[in-house]
Write a structure and sequence with these properties.
Distance between the termini: 16 Å
Number of helices: 17
Number of strands: 2
Strand content: under 5%
Length: 394
């Protein structure tokens, strides 16, 4: 999803490499993940719009929505992996170049799309408390643009719209990179040791949030913090520094990885269903199950992506993955517009009147079309941090 993940290993420190040496595994995994993101949001949207809450169809859609909840950790795992692959190639990384590229590829698009979605909220969403006029001297502005707490949430935690928090996490991760990666270059430890350490660290983060950050400090957006994703980031970093060992690691650990993902899914899904039914659940257990499931799936997808490099489907997924960042940024807006009464009425007139199916097709087509238009008018370098016409992003 992030433009960082579309960089090949050599790009970061040694200039652009030919597209022929790119490992298509990563673009394929991004393709799978962005389709998951879009379907995840589509199911939640359509279940609320078109189905009666509590009905069988509603429950099927909501359970599928919960299962399809692994994309952000997967993208972070890929981001950490590819950054580590590039940074390990030089004894002394060019940090000035590194952060200049983060500014171009993540920070500027984040600020642009934060502004776009704020305008979108004011123009189309019309939440009363946000559009209420507030006088400042001789000027009158919407409350959304005046409230300082809103600005902090929007800029620091990516709350201008529900998906932008991912870019905030990328920025936080970038700031920590200069501290994190020297540790991986200096110390060698096995994948199993790191996995156990990640479990302990992740449990610690969830516990601190449950007993201190939320009840004492009132921190209500922990999933917008990079610490919430310690496991995929550290495991991805290790894989980037030891990519040549991945196949042997997979052969030794694929059973354990699969079990962790399955047990995590059962724990997370059972608690989520209970919470949906109005029952009180343990937040630490819930988040532990979700983290185990999503991290495990991220590793499984990494292997699946490698296998798909030899399949025809892999070529399609690679193409989608190469545009994952614009698809990610644009699709929530397109999904919102498909919910208008006129569009809904039109979709019901189509053959096989299945609102969810046609809403998904419309959302994807409109999103892809908008990305293509932005490429044609040559603003893609600014709004997406890269040229969409280039596989390498340069």
């Amino acid at each position: 999803m992030s433009t960082t993940t579309s960089e090949s290993a050599e790009q970061e420190g040694r200039g652009v490499v030919p597209a022929s040496v790119r490992d298509s595994t990563f673009d394929i995994v991004k393709g799978i993940s962005i389709l998951e993101v879009m379907l995840h949001h589509l199911l939640s949207f359509c279940a609320g719009r078109f189905e009666k809450e509590g009905s069988t169809t509603w429950w099927v859609m909501m359970v599928a929505h919960k299962v399809l909840h692994f994309a952000v950790p997967t993208f972070l795992l890929l981001t950490a992996l590819l950054l580590a692959k590039s940074l390990r190639r030089t004894e002394k990384p060019n940090w000035r170049r590194f952060y200049a590229r983060r500014l171009e590829r993540t920070v500027i698009p984040y600020l642009i799309w934060t502004a776009i979605y704020l305008v979108f909220r004011l123009r189309f969403v019309h939440v009363p408390r946000e559009v209420a006029p507030v006088s400042i001297g001789s000027f009158t502005l919407p409350a959304l643009l005046v409230n300082s707490s809103e600005w902090r949430a929007n800029l620091l935690w990516g709350k201008a719209w529900y998906h932008l928090y991912f870019l905030s996490i990328l920025i936080q991760f970038s700031l920590l990179t200069v501290l994190l990666f020297p540790l991986f270059k200096r110390y060698r430890f096995g994948f199993g040791v790191l996995a156990l350490g990640c479990l302990c660290l992740q449990l610690g983060v969830f516990w601190i949030n449950a007993v201190f950050l939320y009840p004492v400090l009132g921190f209500s957006t922990p999933a917008s913090s990079v610490l919430w994703y310690v496991s995929p980031i550290l495991l991805g970093s290790w894989l980037g520094f030891h990519w040549e060992e991945w196949e042997s690691v997979w052969k030794r650990t694929w059973v354990q990885i699969s079990r962790v993902a399955m047990v995590g899914l059962i724990l997370y899904l059972s608690l989520d269903i209970a919470e949906t039914q109005g029952k009180e659940v343990n937040s630490t257990l819930y988040n532990t199950g979700l983290s185990a499931y999503t991290t495990g799936v991220g590793l499984l997808l990494l292997k699946l992506g490698g296998w798909l490099t030899t399949q025809r489907l892999g070529t399609v997924l690679q193409r989608i993955g190469n545009w994952s960042f614009p698809l990610f940024l644009i699709h929530p807006m397109m999904l919102y517009f498909t919910g208008s009464p006129k569009v809904h009425a039109l979709l019901l007139r189509l053959p096989f009147p299945i609102p969810t199916l046609w809403t998904g097709i419309t959302m994807f087509g409109a999103t892809w079309g908008m990305a293509w238009v932005l490429m044609q008018i040559r603003v893609d370098r600014w709004v997406f941090g890269r040229k969409l016409s280039s596989a390498t992003g340069d």
